[in-house]
Amino acid sequence: MARPNVSRQKVLDAAAELAAAKGISATTVDEIASAAGVAKGSVYYNFESKEAMYSLLITDALERAALRIRAALNNAADGTAVATVVRAFLMGIDEHPAAGKVVATEMFRLDRPWNESLAAQRDVFFSTLQDALVRDGRESSVSDAAAVFGAMLMVGFERVVFSPSMSLERAVASAAR
Amino acid sequence: MARPNVSRQKVLDAAAELAAAKGISATTVDEIASAAGVAKGSVYYNFESKEAMYSLLITDALERAALRIRAALNNAADGTAVATVVRAFLMGIDEHPAAGKVVATEMFRLDRPWNESLAAQRDVFFSTLQDALVRDGRESSVSDAAAVFGAMLMVGFERVVFSPSMSLERAVASAAR
């Protein structure tokens, strides 16, 4: 990963906000530079292309979420492991709602240059969720992990987009069931 | 809705297949016409634009799914209502996997002309799922409906894309829990 710098993070934040509002395809590098308050050259100094920028944004967000839920699982008590993992995931969306929306949007797409990194991180998510299900003495096949993953993704999305008043604990209880 | 005709259905099927494989933005009307085996003029005879075509495809798929799960609920026994609804939804994806993939992809996007019809159908899905949860004596708030919806969407997607050997009953058991 390149060394972090201020412009670079500003660019990534602006890219996330714009794509969350109107999609990646409709977002231009000019708009990103303008929203970040940097020159267009500075965007291209930090990123090869718009694709490379969104690829990094999505990979970073997924890695961060994967690390976060794995750490939560390591500290979870048996019997509440799934709830602990779901809570950690939803708190991650609370901290980075724009990145969360972009990832949710891209999750189901099969036509993107970052598809491979999505697939790799999907495996990490699924194996963490399967471990959590085992820790709670629940069924833990791939379909069970997919069900919890889908539930926490949709509940998180619902909370960010349509129902901001939904409490974290209400969301955890629904998604962890 | 316009009167159905053979070319029209061929065009919609080709549009679904192409968008499922590579996304709506990357799909051109020329490719759709070619895959459907019709002249480009015939596409524009049936649809104003690519956007209008995908809008109809998505609206049709959602309406079909919403009617299907509502009918399933009406015939479901108390105690197995959620499982019955989830099974009906997953069987719908089995019948129309390409349309299912396109809808899953678009579900989380906020930047599309068909966003309003997605939002309207989302309400129908949520209220059907809430009714099913009530019929099973389960918690039935919006977050619970979102959890079941996310679970069945992700399990269905997983089954279509990554795990085609997952049985319907295995998928239902995981998503309806």
UniProtKB/TrEMBL annotation, chains A, B:
<dbReference type="GO" id="GO:0003700">
    <property type="term" value="F:DNA-binding transcription factor activity"/>
</dbReference>
<protein>
    <submittedName>
        <fullName>Transcriptional regulator, TetR family</fullName>
    </submittedName>
</protein>
<keyword id="KW-0804">Transcription</keyword>
<dbReference type="InterPro" id="IPR009057">
    <property type="entry name" value="Homeodomain-like_sf"/>
</dbReference>
<keyword id="KW-0805">Transcription regulation</keyword>
<feature type="domain" description="HTH tetR-type">
    <location>
        <begin position="5"/>
        <end position="65"/>
    </location>
</feature>
<dbReference type="InterPro" id="IPR050109">
    <property type="entry name" value="HTH-type_TetR-like_transc_reg"/>
</dbReference>
<dbReference type="InterPro" id="IPR001647">
    <property type="entry name" value="HTH_TetR"/>
</dbReference>
<dbReference type="GO" id="GO:0000976">
    <property type="term" value="F:transcription cis-regulatory region binding"/>
</dbReference>
<dbReference type="Pfam" id="PF00440">
    <property type="entry name" value="TetR_N"/>
</dbReference>
<keyword id="KW-0238">DNA-binding</keyword>
<feature type="DNA-binding region" description="H-T-H motif">
    <location>
        <begin position="28"/>
        <end position="47"/>
    </location>
</feature>
